[in-house]
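From: lab user (bench 3)
To: helpdesk
Subject: output format question, protein + adenosine-5'-diphosphate

Hello, I'm new to running complex predictions and I'm not sure whether the block I got back is the full result or only part of it. Here's what I submitted:
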Amino acid sequence: MGNRAIYPGTFDPITNGHIDIVARASRLFGHVIVAVAASTSKNTAFSTDERVDLAQRVLTPYANVEVHRFEGLLANFVRQWDAVAVLRGLRAVSDFEYEFQLAGMNKHLVPEADTIFMPTRENYSYISSSLIREIASLGGEVGEFVHPIVREALAERLGKRAIKK
Ligand code: ADP
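Helpdesk reply: Thanks, we reran it on our side. This is the complete output you should expect:
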């Protein structure tokens, strides 16, 4: 089966930037597990189950990719799956400081796994879930940045909110 990598995040919702990281990682690792954080201090637009469902549906083309929710400490999830790597995408230098700190802490907590940073594809550097949510809630077009399934879910969830106001 090969080595396992965990790709953790909030995925609220999954964007083309995330999908690109998963696609590239699926060629490097035997198995990629997208870990959708359940307990988060963030106020999410989509529930954990919805975020998992959206990710699952858009990632079906990748045979060696699975989507699971995780609660609590990422380090425990990594150990539970016997993963060798934690994947994180980097969009800009500004991502780096926090990510570097996170990687250091995770290395301390799970010495047997390493954090692997993947640079975003140039055209995706300005895509973030929060910006996508904002554009969608203001009635903007997000079809270039997300899968059609996600676009529909966003229109359904946030588009109506904008119209109601
Ligand atoms: P978190 O709340 O943990 O930052 P996100 O869902 O926002 O979770 O992102 C998960 C991971 O995907 C992070 O490593 C983030 O840097 C990365 N990521 C987000 N958007 C992009 C993008 N457009 N290109 C590459 N990586 C990205």
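A quick orientation on your result: The chain is about 45% helix and 20% strand. Let us know if anything else is unclear.
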